[in-house]
Amino acid sequence: MAIGESTRDVSALPLAPKNPLPYRERLRAVREFHTGTDRLRDAGGPVTRVILGPKWLIPPIVMVTSPQGIRDILSLRDGSVDKTSAVSTELRRLLGGNLFVLPHEEWLPRRRTLQPVFTRQRVEQFGGHMAEAAEKVCGTWRDGDEIDLDAQCRMLTLRALGRSVLGLDLDERADAIAEPLRVATSYAVSRALRPLRAPAWLPTPARRRARAAAAAVRELADEILQACRADPDREAPLVQALIAATDPETGKSLSDNEIRDEMIIFLFAGHDTTATTLTYALWALGRHPDLQERVRAEVAELGDRQLTPDDVPRLAFTVRVLQEALRLCPPGPTGTRMATRDVAVGGFRAEAGTMLAFGRMAVQTDASLWDDPLKFDPDRFSPERSAGRGRWQYLPFGGGPRSCIGDHFAMLEATLAVATIIRRADIRSVEDDFPLAAPFTMVAAAPIPARVRLRC
Ligand code: HEM
């Protein structure tokens, strides 16, 4: 099969073997999707069919944890796998039709329009404020303080997003973004993963809360957009770029509703994922003083001025620290698609109407693919040790046409933040564990305490 097409006749392929876990364990494994993927694989192999009820009630799931199987799903470009799963439908119902949830036909022109906004060069225009935001957060620490790395990184990411991207002080509006988005997204995921759901029109208390939360975020996004429309010189580069963006094929611009829906997903995707990556990277450095010293020495070479996007090429080890954090703690530990026709997955046939779920975290920590897979070892991303590594065994930003549009932005932001923080402070993690939860993206399940010693 050529990559990107599903034209091959797959009717001769067998269906994937049924997962043998007892029903309750199967259900739990699907709902605890960040850790459950491993349990489903251990019981049923790297391509396994998980049935949770009759087809008319809940689609069969094919869970995939092999690089080959993930490649088969993600590299299809012809709409034969699509984002029409219950998770996408629920998210769209609440937050609107954004790039993350749109089905193929609507997604294609949207991605064409937005892709040029997120090139490596363009994101450098948004990224300049990351270092400043990190300096400010470090400026609030006192020598010997015990801080919660997770809370600090969330504040930092929100501050950077607000100042540099939206032109708004989100510090004072943090409550208007972070919590409502979490309420809305975790409701959507938890509802989507339930075999029996109340009908969408029934006003349950959870649904009312989720709708109110989504409405609050929409209101804020509208406010920012209208302020930018009224003042074209307002410093809000991403919003201004969305206003100016046009589809290179049709010349069409985005409507205000479309821009607002995209702003909401950027606020969510840009905040939660990057904050978790930073928290995990700093926690890991706080347990490995030798690695932390290498980051410090690398950034010391750049002098004492504020870091800029131009410095990133000279922060190669800091980047590796982040790559390793993203391997062990990918904020999107699993992904899903719906098969719209019968497709081949890892040598098996997945029938149209099957939910294809794939384990990024599972493949990134698979002992048959990685040496000492649970060890935090940034040097595994050195050019020498990366040579020959398969493309589909490391995919924190996904792969194929629907990979993360914000990957350069996120890496730029996180690199400047880690380098700036480690230059200012020595971090010692208090706990040896990093508890995880996955209400939608994967996040720290509890505060991540660390003691800071200021360096200057
Ligand atoms: C460390 C940070 C981040 C991680 C780990 C991450 C991860 C991902 C992954 C795995 C996907 C693919 C989902 C799938 O295959 O179903 C994705 C998609 C997406 N991400 Fe990110 N992301 C990050 C930061 C960002 C940022 C900063 C933005 C925007 C400002 C962003 C916007 C998006 C959007 C819009 C999509 C949907 C793309 C499409 O379907 O065309 N992400 N992200």
How many helical elements?
Answer: 17
Helix content: 40-55%
Secondary-structure content class: alpha+beta
Strand order of the largest sheet: 1-2-8-5-3
Largest sheet: 5 strands, mixed
Shape: globular
- How far apart the termini lie comes to 58 Å
Binned strand content: 5-15%
- Mean pLDDT comes to 90
Features:
single chain, 456 residues, alpha+beta, five-stranded mixed β-sheet, three-stranded antiparallel β-sheet, 12 strands, globular, binds protoporphyrin IX containing FE
Structure, described:
This protein has 456 residues and is of the alpha+beta class. The protein contains 17 helices and 12 strands. The chain has helices at 23-31, 33-44, 67-74, 86-95, 104-114, 120-127, 130-139, 149-166, 174-192, 205-230, 237-244, 256-285, 289-300, 316-328, 360-364, 383-386, 407-424, and strands at 47-50, 61-64, 81-82, 146-148, 334-339, 343-345, 348-350, 355-359, 425-429, 436-437, 443-444, 449-454. The strands form 4 sheets. It has a 5-stranded mixed sheet. α7 (130-139) packs across α8, α7 runs parallel beside α17 (407-424) and α13 (289-300) crosses α17 (407-424). The longest helix is centred in the middle third of the chain and has 30 residues, at 256-285. The model has no long low-confidence stretch (mean pLDDT 90).
Structure summary:
This protein is 48% helix and 10% strand. The chain contains 17 helices and twelve strands.
Draw up the topology in text:
Layout (H helix, E strand, L loop, with lengths): L22 H9 L1 H12 L2 E4 L10 E4 L2 H8 L6 E2 L3 H10 L8 H11 L5 H8 L2 H10 L6 E3 H18 L7 H19 L12 H26 L6 H8 L11 H30 L3 H12 L15 H13 L5 E6 L3 E3 L2 E3 L4 E5 H5 L18 H4 L20 H18 E5 L6 E2 L5 E2 L4 E6 L2
Parallel strand pairs: 2-8
Antiparallel strand pairs: 1-2, 3-5, 4-12, 5-8, 6-7, 9-12, 10-11
Helix pairs in contact: 1-2, 4-9, 6-17, 7-8, 7-17, 8-12, 9-10, 9-12, 10-12, 12-14, 12-17, 13-14, 13-17
The chain binds protoporphyrin IX containing FE.
